[in-house]
Design a protein that fits this description.
This protein has 384 residues and is an alpha+beta fold. It is built from four helices and 22 strands. A hairpin with a 7-residue loop joins strand 13 and strand 14.
Length: 384
């Protein structure tokens, strides 16, 4: 019996030794983790566009002349500023000016004809009145009076017809001048020339009905830049004009720009094979930054629905499934349950379970990072 006791003691000793070696000499190296200090800050509830948004210009005109012709002048080039009414393209107008000269000569001729016809009518009217007085005195016959009356009416009709001819000639002059104006493209608003698709000497054609052709001049107003973004229909009831927002633009990676919602579409887009969305428009608060954005650039809009200030918060990336976080206690990771409140992609509000000054692990994607693992703090970020 004594021998069995001795053997058991030896076996227990071996087991204890193996356990000690497992957690000392043969223990795995501690895992390096990053932690962040829990502190008070601002947490927001937000919604983001479900598909890529786009930077657009509210005032943008893609212009083509209303008549065909050869380009003779392009006063402004891409990137240059223009004011409303400035000529941005001029076509050869020799034919139109010749037509105007002809119309003006025709107007002069019809004016002369009107003067002659009206003078004749005035003379015929005086002659009729003179014969009428003689007829009253029985000096002139009734037949002579009838002839004078007929001649006066005929002359008055000729005067009226000549007047109509003058108006027609004036209309022809106006038409010729309009044709000349159609050979000129003018800026419809103050802006910048974005693109020119022709050169001096080339022929440009007007766009026929129902068959659009590419414009020859593209003008946009950099002060009218906004971001159009499609939001999921489930969020449409919570989004309204004048709400605060944040905008990120692909060409300015890592930067956020404060903005506000200026319009929410009054309908939901139902496009086949796509989620139903409602379009919103947002404008940046910084006018100088607005002018730097290029229309057509991809952008995202994050609408701020609710905001809580000075509440306990942690980075959202530190939160595990089941509302748990990992803390470091005596070199070992310990899981702790927490109750959360508002959250977004960046931060999550902690209602209970943590205190200011606690350090939670944020490098959860590293292998072996789980409750019970031995760790060493690689870096620690200060208060949020």
């Amino acid at each position: 019996m004594k021998r069995w006791i001795q053997r058991g003691a030896v076996l227990v000793g071996i087991v204890v030794l193996l356990v000690l070696l497992r957690y000392t000499a043969f223990a795995p190296d501690p895992i390096a983790v990053q932690v962040v200090t829990v502190a008070a800050g601002t947490v927001e509830e937000t919604v983001t566009n479900s598909q890529a948004g786009t930077v657009r210009a509210r005032n943008r005109a893609k212009l083509s002349p209303e008549s065909g012709g050869t380009v003779v002048a392009i006063p402004f080039r891409e990137g240059q500023r223009v004011t409303k009414g400035s000529v941005v393209l001029r076509l050869d107008d020799q034919l139109q000016r010749a037509e105007l000269a002809l119309a003006e000569r025709e107007l002069e001729s019809t004016n002369s004809q009107e003067q002659q016809a009206c003078l004749t009518a005035d003379r015929a009217a005086r002659e009729r009145d003179r014969i009428a007085r003689l007829a009253e005195e029985k000096i002139a016959s009734q037949d002579l009076l009838d002839q004078a009356t007929t001649e006066a009416d005929r002359a008055a009709a000729a005067c009226a017809a000549a007047g109509s001819g003058v108006e027609k000639a004036r209309a022809a002059v106006s038409l010729a001048r309009t044709k000349i104006e159609k050979t000129v493209l003018r800026a419809p608003f103050d802006g910048i020339v974005a693109d020119i698709a022709t050169e001096v000497g080339e022929w440009v054609s007007p766009s026929p009905p129902a068959l659009p052709i590419p414009p020859v001049v593209d003008i946009l107003d950099p002060d009218s830049i906004y971001i159009s973004a499609p939001m999921d229909e489930v969020d449409s009831a919570r989004i309204a004009a004048d709400q605060s927002a944040r905008v990120t633009v692909d060409s300015y990676r890592g930067e956020h720009f404060s903005a506000r919602v200026v319009r929410v579409a009054p309908y939901v887009l139902d496009v086949e094979a796509q989620n139903r969305t409602v379009e919103i428009e947002a404008e940046l608060d910084d006018a100088n930054m607005t002018q730097r954005l290029l229309p057509g650039t991809s952008a995202d809009v994050e609408v701020i629905l609710q905001e809580k200030k000075d509440v306990l918060r942690i980075p959202t990336q530190a939160l595990l499934e089941g509302n748990q976080v990992l803390l470091v206690e005596d070199g070992v990771l310990v899981a702790r349950d927490v109750v959360t409140g508002l959250n977004n992609w960046d931060y999550t509000e902690i209602v209970s379970g943590l205190s200011a000054g606690d350090e939670v692990v944020i490098s959860l994607d590293r292998p072996g990072v789980q409750a019970g693992a031995r760790v060493v703090i690689e870096s620690s970020q200060g208060a949020l």
